[in-house]
Amino acid sequence: MLCCMPGVAFVPALLVSWSSAAFIISYVIAVLAGHVEPLVPYISDTGTKPPESGIFGFMINISALLGVITMYIRYLLIEKQNESSHFVRSSCNIFSLCIGLMGCIGMGIVATFQELSVPSVHDIGALVAFGSGVIYITLQSIISYKSCPQWNTYFVCHIRMAISVISCIAFIPMIVFASQISMTKIDWTPGEK
């Protein structure tokens, strides 16, 4: 089975490294080109204008693919562990995988439809990506607790749940503040709201 193959643990590390590089590289190019202000721009702002938009789109699509692979490996791992322990219903594991895959599709939409080109599609993709991501990590935290102590330590479960709670808390203001913005614009002039 794929999840039991030696070395498969490199995939989540590759996902984190590649995604971080995608954000950092597009940020550096956008700042050097003068397309964004260096102080905390939105991630999407750093991938809106060429040449960084091409790099951002390509790298985020690869991140979405790596996310799919990582989630599928996690799904297979839980299925294999569940064969001997029966700590979670298979349908819960499948549901969690489907939610995670929706988040990866949202990432692909964000990467493909730039913020200024097709803002409504971009925003829907971002909502799907972040919303599904929050639900996915919460479900995975619950599954981790159900697998304790045989397959996880409580320390790991507590860290996963803390990340889930922080994500849920961060998601709420994101929705509230995003709904207050009527237009997407990068270049602001003095006097504008």
From TrEMBL:
InterPro entries, sorted: CWH43_N, DRAM/TMEM150_Autophagy_Mod
Domain CWH43-like N-terminal: 8-183
One GO term (biological process): regulation of autophagy
Protein's cellular compartments: Endomembrane system
Superkingdom field: Eukaryota
Membrane topology per record: Multi-pass membrane protein
Keywords: Membrane, Transmembrane, Transmembrane helix
Gene Ontology cellular component terms for the protein in this record: endomembrane system; lysosome
Protein name, entry field: DRAM1 protein
Gene responsible for this protein: Dram1
